[in-house]
Write the structure tokens for this entry.
Amino acid sequence: MTEQPRQRTIGVTSQEKTNLEAAKKSYEQHIGEKTDWGNFLGIVAIAGLATLGVYKLVKSRQSNPVTTCAVCGKQFSIAYTGNLPPVVYVKCPGCGEELVVDMTEE
Ligand SMILES: [Zn+2]
């Protein structure tokens, strides 16, 4: 009997890897600091899910992190310790809808 692997590795072609590394680099330039792959891929994943419409995308600002739920219209502030990342995943305290908040200033 072979032991089941705990984690599956995802096959990434060298072209995809190059694209990901370029995206990570431009993200680091955007936020002005180095980030690790886990953090970066987490942000890419939630941003991607919002793009696909899995989560509702709402806007807010880092200088005033208040947003309005796209479903029930409840306004709430985003509690976050430390620096806010450009994309935040939150749950509406009113209706429980999962929301992705774009924190980039316009
Ligand atoms: Zn809501």
About this structure: The radius of gyration is 17 Å. The mean pLDDT is 85.
